[in-house]
């Protein structure tokens, strides 16, 4: 038998305004240097010139004062436009953001024209006794606002590219995606360099404001000082993304990505059973193909017959040999995705550049936003409420009731016909201000909730995905760590009907050593009716390397190892090492209408101590919808503070994304 683990994986300069010295000053020093006889005519000319300039200056003081007043007022208006634009970005309202930025740009241009009309004498103010420091500050502010406005105007180009403008011009989902990706790529190529210049200028502006302190326009400077870091952060992020976009969408290249549809009603470590997938092919920034696989078993079975591959022990109950559909068994999404890509290559002879994984929770929530999808050939109207039920019925039963479908044997055909309609309706939703904000918020929540995951062969792109926590990686967090992963193996489609709760009692001694009691409770709220049934799960409690089991108890339910029917009475817990972590593995099975519960006592490694504070990272398993968490910390210290507030026993929250808990001892 081959082992998949042993297989080799493929793995301007901008022109600056230079203040010129008065001509009389140059003339005077030039005469001194040449040491020629004194000529009183230049002196008279000097006096005459000075009187003319002074007279012109006094004559235009009212105009200058009016300019300064307008500058102050308009600078505040421009700042308000920028703040409203930033608010639009934060609320995912790209249209409003772009409009605010453009309005700020227009007002700034008008202000510059006013400066040119009024300021032919203004440079001399810097050399005259009545030079006004307010004018100096005004000049600095207008430069800063100019840089900020150019920055956010450039950012709005990318935001506008995500919207389909006045509405989709085609119902072809490939063309819809191509229009967006090509526009995004062009924006990235055009604006990356200009944003880098803005980043440098924003850094200079931040230093300038930091050194200027109070003085005139102190309130305005405080507002600018507050906005600058936020704008600069978005500029730097855009620079990073713009560097990657041509690589993602294969500018001057060709790339194929696997899109995995993971059914999290049948949980697996990386998110859910891999029953269906699609292939998206990009060339020169345009989507050229979007092909849906309607029956993964068609490519799995021929390969398995000729290439039996070692199956992890827990999977022996459902399959004698490993194939594409079960290849996402690693808890860390990177090795899981690499195995998926390897099996896809072996079974089809085709390569891919990365993996995008989404689950049924994301699709269900999206349908609730964009509205129902009509499927007249099936006599169905699919909604967010009936999606799982109707699709599972059509795939497993309804399709095969029609004997004419047997030769085709494509039960996932309904998905391939429905997804283009979802894409089309999603693009239509992007043109509605309210819907657009909701859709973007859903995608954001799905990324952090691990209902949407990415892996890329491109190193720089993968590094970015990992930095943003979009890649489903097991963290190398230096403090305490916990991740509970469960795999529904032979438990039908029961995972989403099981409500999970976990409590941790964390005890620290005087030296900062930690012992813990973790209690896991699962309540099955489903039935025995298909596609539901007994929830049979293989679990991994992933903790810091070197942790040691003290005690393990089943309080209700059972821990029969369903992978081996001859050893049903030999439950228990096993210890192993994976991804630089210690793993406690066990079964926990739950019958409909009942609750299962187990308790594990263990100690963290002796070298991992917390003398002054305690930190715990709890990572969420991809595909799960959020478990209730209850955490209680005890310590011989006088008081425990969390987020600067005195600790209240216990802490309760829903684990809907990776969460870090920090406690200080005083």
How would you summarize this macromolecular structure in one to three sentences?
With about 675 residues, this protein is α+β, with helices and mostly antiparallel strands. The chain is built from 14 helices and 21 strands.
Supply the key terms.
single chain; alpha+beta; eight-stranded mixed sheet; six-stranded mixed sheet; 14 helices; 21 strands
How is the main sheet built? 8 strands, mixed
Gyration radius (Cα, Å) is 33 Å
Helix vs. strand class: alpha+beta
The percentage of residues in β strands lies in 15-25%
**Mean of pLDDT:** 83
Helix content: 40-55%
Low-confidence stretches: 1-38, 48-59, 120-132
Number of helices: 14
Task: State the total count of DSSP E strands.
Answer: 21
Shape: globular
Strand order of the largest sheet: 13-14-11-8-16-21-18-19
What is the straight-line distance between the termini? 58 Å
């Amino acid at each position: 038998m081959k082992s998949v683990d042993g297989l080799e994986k493929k793995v301007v300069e901008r022109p600056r305004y230079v203040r010129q010295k008065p001509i009389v000053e140059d003339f005077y020093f030039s005469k001194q240097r040449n040491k020629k006889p004194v000529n009183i005519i230049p002196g008279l000319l000097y006096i005459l010139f000075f009187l003319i300039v002074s007279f012109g200056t006094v004559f235009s003081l009212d105009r200058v004062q009016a300019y300064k007043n307008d500058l102050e007022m308009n600078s505040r208006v421009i700042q308000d436009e920028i703040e409203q634009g930033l608010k639009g970005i934060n609320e995912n309202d790209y249209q409003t953001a772009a409009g605010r930025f453009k309005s700020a740009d227009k007002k700034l241009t008008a202000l510059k024209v006013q400066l040119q009309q009024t300021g032919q004498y203004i440079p001399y103010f810097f050399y005259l006794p009545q030079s006004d420091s307010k004018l100096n500050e005004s000049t600095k502010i207008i430069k800063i606002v100019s840089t900020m406005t150019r920055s956010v105007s450039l950012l709005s180009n990318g935001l506008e590219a995500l919207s389909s403008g006045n509405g989709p011009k085609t119902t072809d989902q490939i063309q819809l995606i191509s229009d967006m990706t090509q526009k995004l790529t062009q924006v990235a190529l055009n604006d990356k360099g200009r944003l880098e210049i803005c980043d440098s200028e924003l850094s200079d502006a931040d230093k300038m404001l930091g050194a200027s302190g109070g003085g005139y326009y102190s309130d305005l400077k405080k507002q600018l000082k507050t906005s600058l870091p936020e704008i600069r952060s978005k500029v730097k992020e855009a620079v990073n993304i713009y560097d990657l976009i041509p690589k993602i969408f294969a500018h001057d290249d060709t790339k194929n990505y696997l899109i995995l549809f993971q059914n999290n009603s049948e949980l697996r470590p990386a998110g859910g059973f891999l029953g269906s997938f699609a292939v998206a092919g990009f060339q020169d920034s345009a989507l050229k193909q979007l092909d849906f696989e309607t029956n993964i078993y068609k490519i799995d079975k021929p390969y398995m017959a000729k290439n039996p591959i070692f199956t992890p022990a827990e999977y022996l109950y459902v399959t004698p040999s490993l194939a594409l559909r079960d290849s996402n068994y690693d808890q860390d999404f990177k090795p899981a995705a690499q195995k998926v890509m390897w099996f896809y290559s072996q079974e089809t002879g085709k390569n891919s550049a990365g993996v995008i994984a989404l689950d049924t929770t994301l699709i269900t929530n999206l349908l609730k936003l964009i509205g129902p999808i009509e499927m007249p050939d099936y006599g169905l109207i699919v909604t967010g409420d009936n999606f799982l039920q109707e699709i599972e019925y059509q795939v497993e039963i309804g399709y095969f009731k029609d004997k004419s479908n047997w030769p085709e044997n494509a039960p996932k055909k309904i998905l391939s016909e429905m997804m283009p309609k979802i894409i089309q309706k999603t693009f239509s939703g992007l043109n509605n201000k309210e819907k657009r904000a909701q859709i973007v918020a859903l995608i954001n929540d799905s990324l952090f909730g691990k209902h949407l995951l990415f892996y890329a062969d491109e190193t720089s792109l993968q590094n970015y995905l990992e930095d943003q926590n979009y890649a489903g990686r097991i963290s190398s967090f230096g403090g305490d760590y916990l991740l509970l992963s469960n795999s529904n193996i032979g438990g039908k489609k029961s995972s989403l009907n099981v409500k999970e709760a976990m409590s941790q009692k964390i005890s620290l001694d005087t030296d900062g050593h930690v012992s813990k009691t973790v209690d896991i409770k699962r309540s099955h709220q489903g039935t025995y009716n298909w596609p539901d049934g007994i929830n049979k799960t293989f679990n991994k409690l992933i903790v810091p390397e070197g942790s040691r089991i003290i005690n393990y108890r089943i309080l209700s339910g059972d821990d029969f190892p369903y992978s081996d029917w001859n050893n049903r009475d030999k439950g228990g817990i096993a210890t192993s090492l994976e991804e630089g972590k210690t793993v406690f593995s066990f079964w926990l099975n739950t019958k409909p209408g009942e609750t299962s519960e187990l308790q594990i006592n263990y100690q963290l490694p002796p070298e991992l101590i917390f003398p002054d504070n305690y930190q715990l990272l709890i990572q969420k398993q991809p595909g799960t919808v959020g478990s209730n968490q209850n955490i209680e910390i005890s310590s011989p210290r006088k008081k425990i503070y969390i987020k600067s507030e005195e600790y209240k026993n216990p802490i309760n929250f829903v684990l809907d994304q990776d969460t870090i808990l920090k406690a200080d001892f005083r």
